[in-house]
Amino acid sequence: MRPIGIWSDVKLAIIKEYASAYAKILDAQRPESISRLRWIYIHAYAGPGAHLSRTTKELVDGSPLIALKTIPPFSEYHFIDADPKRADQLREIRGDRKDVHIHSADCNEILLEKVFPRAKYEDYRRALCLLGPVQHQSRMGGVIEAAAKAGSVEVFLNFMIMDINRNVLRNNLDQAIQSKVEQLTRLWGDETWIDAAYDTRGNLFGDPEKVSNERFESAWRERVGKKAGFKFASRPMPMRTKTNSVIYYLYFAYFASQKPVAAGIVDDIFNKYRNRAYKDGGKFTHRMDPRDLEPRDRLHKDQPRVQALLRGATGESVEADGSGKLPKRVSSHPATPGVGTAVTE
Ligand SMILES: C[S@@+](CC[C@H](N)C(=O)[O-])C[C@H]1O[C@@H](n2cnc3c(N)ncnc32)[C@H](O)[C@@H]1O
Q1: In degrees rounded to 5, what are phi and psi of residue 163?
Q2: Which of 136, 157, 158, 248 to mutate for ligand 1's pocket (most ligand atoms within 8 Å of CB)?
Q3: Overall fold of domain 3-166+213-313
Q4: Distance in angstroms (rounded) separating the CA atoms of residues 123 and 336
Q5: Domain boundaries, the chain
Q6: What does the pLDDT read at residue 225?
Q7: I want to staple 284 with a disulfide (CB 3.0 to 4.6 A). Which of 83, 277, 314, 319 is the partner?
Q8: pLDDT > 70 fraction of the chain, expressed in percent and rounded
């Protein structure tokens, strides 16, 4: 089994925390107001159900297993992996659960044909979709746009900046690997990534120079809004190696036709993990279990907004100070566009 790095530990922790908050909030809405409401978990490049953590040397649940253990459960689950062996592993994990669907197929097709049609907004269905790493054959006109247009699908999206830096964004573009250039063009939707990636204003001779990671990811985020059509795209979570290089950026995006309550939660979760994983000499020591998601547990002690939302979802009084209002979200980088930034406006 291939061991996973520290960034994957962090990603799994984020998914676990968010999936549970998401399900709790929707479950709380159902009995009172919308009895037909259903919520679906979709993982497009599902991979194996379990991993060996390079950090702890332990066997840890992969995102499919994490999703299946979410309390309260999702109404249905869809795991997609093009590799039949992976799909068989996922079937083994599923056991005899009837609410879990395994698709051994190209996610770019099956999502459009079978899975997203099950998550129609007008049918009172909502979906949480893990779409990544998107460089793997995804294209702007396909699943990313379809997820945005559905209006009911929230996505976590990986943007593999290290791979792009190594293989595409060379000082001289002629030295880039052609297949990777084509992959990026497909993902971006056209060749305008070249304008976003290079700047000619930095030197006297007008030679193109590669822009910073931050500037390029910000251009990608704008693309997720303007081209794909998501209305909200989070300030991403940079997933770093121990030596601090960014492997990929993890985004959360949502076409909000209603108030994006969940987006506020994910921003808080991202903020919590931004630096936490790298203290203690690079060790990720924070382990989680389902009890972590109880409103007053230790995990959320530094997240008043998440606590308040979960208390609201479980019918408890929301306010901490008797005001009846949610605590204001505090951004660690107020000047940077973040969750709730209307990227299409
Ligand atoms: C790096 S693994 C994914 C790990 C997983 N996302 C996680 O978080 O644990 C990538 C997986 O995507 C699958 N894959 C690659 N291209 C695919 C496609 N077009 N459709 C569906 N699955 C694909 C591969 O078989 C592989 O199992």
Answers
A1: -65, -40
A2: 136
A3: Rossmann fold (3.40.50)
A4: 36
A5: 3-166+213-313
A6: 86
A7: 277
A8: 71
Residue whose Cα lies nearest atom 19 of ligand 1: it is 106
45 CA distance to ligand 1 centroid (A)?
Answer: 3
Report CA dihedral (302, 304, 307, 312) to the nearest 10 degrees: 180
Q: How far is the CA of 49 from the centre of ligand 1 (A)?
A: 11
pLDDT in tens, 95-137: 899 999 999 999 989 999 999 999 998 899 999 999 876 655 6
Q: What are phi and psi of 23, to 5 degrees?
A: -65, -40
Q: Are 75 and 60 in contact (CB under 8 A)?
A: no
Hey, what are 31's tokens?
A: 């009995």
Residues with CB under 6 A from ligand 1: 45, 47, 62-63, 80-83, 86, 106-108, 136-137
Sign of the dihedral through C-alpha 143, 148, 154, 157: positive
pLDDT of residue 2: 66
Would you tell me how many other CB atoms lie within 10 Å of the CB of residue 191? 10
Tokens of 143: 């699943």
Q: Residue 125: beta bridge partners? A: 38
pLDDT at 281 over 60: no
Closest C-alpha to ligand 1, atom 17? 82
C-alpha to C-alpha distance for 332 and 302, rounded to whole angstroms: 14
Q: For 141-170, give one letter per residue: b (16+ CB within 10 A) or e.
A: ebbbbbbbebbbbbbbbbbbbebbbebbbe
Q: CB–CB of 246/161 below 8 Å?
A: yes
Farthest CA pair distance, the chain: 67
Q: What pLDDT is attached to residue 52?
A: 73
